[in-house]
Amino acid sequence: MTMSAFFIIAVLLLGFLIVFQIAKASEYVAVLKGEKKTFEQNNRINGFLLLAFLILGLIGVYWCNSLLKPKILGEAASDHGQKIDSMLYITLAITGIVFVLTQVLLFWFAFKYQYKENRTAFYFPHNNKLELIWTVIPAITLTILVGFGLYYWFKITGDAPKDAMVVEVTGKQFAWIYRYPGKDNTFGKKYYKNINEAQSNQLGLLWDDPATHDDIVETEALYLVKGQPVKLVINSRDVVHDVGLSHFRMKMDAVPGTPTTMWFTPLYTTEEMKQKTNNPNFEYEISCDQMCGKGHYSMKGIIKVVSQSDFILWRAKQKANYVQAFPEKDPSAAPAPAADSTKSKKPATDSAATAKN
Amino acid sequence: MSNEAILHGSEVSTHEAHHDGHGEHHHHETFISKYVFSMDHKMIAKQFLITGIIWAILGGLMSVLFRLQLGFPDATFPWLESILGHWAKGGKIQPEFYYALVTMHGTVLVFFVLTAGLSGTFANFLIPLQIGARDMASPFMNMLSYWFFFISSVVMISSLFIQTGPASGGWTSYPPLSALGDASLGSKTGMDLWLIAMALFVVSSLLGGLNYISTILNLRTKGMGMTRLPLTIWALFFTAVLGVLSFPVLLSGFILLLFDRHAGTSFYLSDIFLASTQKALPNEGGSAILYQHLFWFLGHPEVYIILLPAMGMVSEVMSTNARKPIFGYMAMVGSIFAITILAFLVWAHHMFVTGLNPFLGSFFVLLTLLIAVPSAIKVFNWLTTLWRGNIRFTPAMLFAIGFVSLFISGGLTGIWLGNSSLDIHLHDTYFVIAHFHIVMGVASFFGMFCGVYHWFPKMYGRYLNNTMGYIHFWITIVGAYLIFWPMHYEGLAGMPRRYLDYSGWASFNQFGGLNHFISIVSIIVFAVQLLFVFNFFYSIFKGRRVKTENPWGSNTLEWTTPIHPGHGNWVGEIPEVHRWAYDYGKDGREFIPQTEPISANESEHH
Question: Is residue B28 situated within a structural domain?
Fold first, then answer.
């Protein structure tokens, strides 16, 4: 053990000893002073402390808010996120009022009605009218909250628009895999027993299905288009994960064997967010929000929100997974326009490198 | 008379059980029959309490260890390596061990401390004493209940010492992670031990719960109608009902999990390829979500199993020390009843983001937010109980007031999380941690402390030291708010739970200073709990002696027993009850015990 550990333990023990001695002494003093007098004194002190706790506590709540509010994520970066934020403010307003009201009453009553020798407690066992009031008012308030909540809930979980881009996201211990349907706009079939990482088939795509041949499988980043709704089809390859998108305020579990979906519309490109947040290192991050094993805390994905034209450029550069698995079948490697073949060389070597990994 | 018969019957069985286990002791009231295999509900209560305290120290210590990692992610603590070996290689807590710590912290505090330690202690102690019975309906089952809990504890502790470590998939142990040893180290033998310990725990809880229910229904003394029961008893009754109806469902979930682990079944498993072995598993067609339904069908009632006894004790202590009847007794009973019913109908609010049908989810939103109505009734009734009282701030009373404050703070954030649209953003973030630690963890602890300070004189015939009690209360309430209040902000930023290091995240690394602060406060608060533990054990032997039967001027029956009640509680006849438990401040009298007949010129009311 280090010196500092010894030091801390020594300080703790000393603290204990002092507290114990004081506590013991106070019992003797109580006997000397008389129990009644000691009780009255303690009662006054604790009554005062309860009031002080209320006042300092409310100041503390305000102070904590001003200190930490700038550190939460700022404006929501998706349309659904904006709805969730408005729901949040409605709920905050209502619960905030109830919080202050009830805490003030609690500590104020405790302070005000503390023991006084000449006070007699008021025998007040029940009052139907009062009880009716505080059954009905919370019920109405909660109805309002349920109403707003479900209104937003059905907007957010409703069907994605027809023109939404569809991307498949698959979680594995401890990374994310993204699949785009390619030019045919159809995801090819897959079966988990076909997964073979050594042969560049991370998702178990069935090569017999021609629809798989143009599917793009990507692990570096999920590219989305600003202003275009995106529907994520979420899968897991092993245990339960969760696609957590804090800036978009969205979240959905990835469950092996049971695909889930969520959709939203990104409102700002990554570049725009860098300026908005004054943070040149800003990235949209996917955090795994469901305990998934020892690497859970590091299971990060990156989302790049780009403009439509940048997205088209990016997609044009991507090799289909089929081509990565069977480099000899690369149509661009076969006799083709010269410009194309030089372009395709670099991604081809890239994919060879990832296959080796 | 029936009580006598039961007591007599129990003594016969004492002898038999005794005979089987320990052939060499043939005489009664040996050390073993009095302190170890005791059938006196009061002794069993103390066994639950002390075992609970030991578990609480362990569970708290685990949180201190993982708070060290969270607060000081870059520091190394070489002394950790000397204690923990390869779990803290180079003085840094390893990820596997971090997850084992959070898993065991949750399991221990939820089940072993706040269920067994809280219900086990106070249901055992207070039910016979407050309803006027000589013991439980079945003292033998009651003893078994403790010893199953004890064996369960031994199994759970043993899992800490095995090579692959204890379970580490979170206290909820969701499969497939918990089903596959190749997916996580803690899902090897540690998980089996966890499941066995939990199964034994369920047995203990059922034996206890059935006993509590039958005792309350059948062994009330003459005149003790159900509407004259103290609210503690009502709360403990509904707690037992919740446990009896929901723990078996949890057990079924665990059994299916054991089958998936060892018998090759596919209840929870489907479409799995493990990167660690590069193999696809044969299981197809199972649903990982099925487990979550079975788990939360207990898991949600469980939070009320933890909370209701605290509510009951707070009501009792608050009324006694405000010297005023509890306001709205029937409304209090009704709201506990409503909470009990609703507790079974809200479990899927833990699963809003699992892909649950959104239409189905909307019903769970409605039912979840409905719970806020009985909760609000309870809060307003407590506030009105304080209003125009003549309040004595005993340590127990302070903890009761603290409970209400925490219940309000944590309850209101439940309205956030229960609303599915907000839950999308807040689910599995620090907001959830803050919410349930305040409303279920700290609040229930406050209920427990309230009970311990209040009934300690009845348990041991001595008082706890007041000054240490006040220090304990003030540091704990201030510390609890300092720890958990700022966590709401981390949650609003979307910061996920169960991460041991946030420095690699652009979205969450802004809270380093805050995590540092929280860790320091939690160490201080933990140290103060040790002060309480010291006070507890010291006062058992050296505390100020109780000199009167009824030190708090209380109405309930336990204070009519001798200062040191023997097995059987009352010398001579069990007293008869003539009124409800809350005639404080009536007709100018400070308190009127339940045993006092209603006089001719007494004003109307109960």
Answer: no
Contact A233, A168 (CB under 8 A): yes
Per the CB < 8 Å rule, is A146 touching B185? no
Q: What is the ipTM of this complex?
A: 0.92
Counting beta carbons within 10 angstroms of the beta carbon of residue B275, is it exposed (0 to 12), middle (13 to 18) or buried (19 or more)? Answer: middle
Contact A322, A212 (CB under 8 A): yes
Per-residue pLDDT tens over the stretch B446-496: 999 999 999 999 999 999 999 999 999 999 999 999 999 999 999 999 999
Q: Sort B474 into a burial class: Cβ within 10 Å, 0-12 / 13-18 / 19+.
A: middle
pTM score, whole prediction = 0.92
Write out chain B residues lying below 8 Å of A124, CB-based: 324-325, 327, 384, 387-388
Smallest Cα distance from B215 to chain A, Å:
28
- pLDDT score recorded for residue B79: 86
Amino acid at A119: R
Residue B398, in any domain of the structure: yes
Residue B527 lies in domain: 2-6+95-566+574-582
Nearest to B226 by CA among B123, B122, B131: B131
Q: Best interface-test mutation with A: which of B171, B333, B391 has the largest number of A CBs within 10 A?
A: B391
Residues whose CB is less than 8 angstroms from the CB of residue B410 and which lie 6 or more positions away in sequence, other chains included: B434, B435, B436, B437, B438, B439, B440, B442, B443
Q: How far is B265 from chain A (nearest CA, A)?
A: 15
pLDDT tens, B342-381? 999 999 999 999 999 999 999 999 999 999 999 999 999 9
pLDDT score recorded for residue A15: 87
| Per-residue pLDDT at A214 exceeds 80 | yes
Is B542 at the interface with chain A, CB within 8 A? Answer: no
pLDDT tens string B18-30: 444 444 444 467 8
Tell me the residues of chain B between 129 and 168 that have a Cβ less than 8 Å away from chain A.
168
Query: Do B510 and A71 lie within an 8 Å CB cutoff?
Result: yes
Across B498-516, average pLDDT: 93
Which CATH number goes with the domain that contains B229? 1.20.210.10
* Beta strand pairing call for A175-180 and A284-288: unpaired
The upper half-sphere exposure of residue A284, i.e. CA atoms within 13 Å in the direction of its Cβ, equals 29
Of A249, A256, A281, which is closest to B288 when you measure between CB atoms?
A: A256
d(CA A257, nearest CA chain B) in Å: 5
**Residue A64 vs residues A3, A60, A68, B151: alpha-carbon distances, Å:** 35, 6, 6, 45
Tokens of B126: 């207070």
Q: How far apart are CA B555 and CA B569, in angstroms?
A: 17
Three-state DSSP class for residue B390 = coil
Does B322 contact A at CB distance below 8 Å? yes
Token pair for B360:
């189905």
| Residue B43 covered by a domain | no
Q: Do B377 and A134 touch (CB under 8 A)?
A: yes
Domain assignment of residue B61, yes or no: no
3-state SS string over B182-236? Answer: CCCHHHCHHHHHHHHHHHHHHHHHHHHHHHHHHHHHHCCCCCCCHHHCCHHHHHH
Domains along the sequence of chain A with CATH: 34-66+74-115+125-158 (no CATH), 165-333+341-356 (2.60.40.420)
SS3 content of chain A, % helix, strand, coil (to 5): 55, 20, 30
Handedness of CA A199, A204, A209, A213 (dihedral sign): negative
pLDDT given for residue B605 in this prediction: 63
Would you tell me which residues 94-123 of chain A have a C-beta closer than 8 angstroms to some C-beta of chain B? Answer: 94-95, 98-99, 102-103, 105-107, 109-110, 113-116, 119-123
Q: Which amino acid, one-letter code, is at A68?
A: L
Query: How many domains are contained in chain B?
Result: 1
What does the alpha-carbon distance between residue B411 and residue B372 come to, in Å, rounded to a whole number? 8
Sign of the dihedral through C-alpha B41, B46, B47, B52: positive
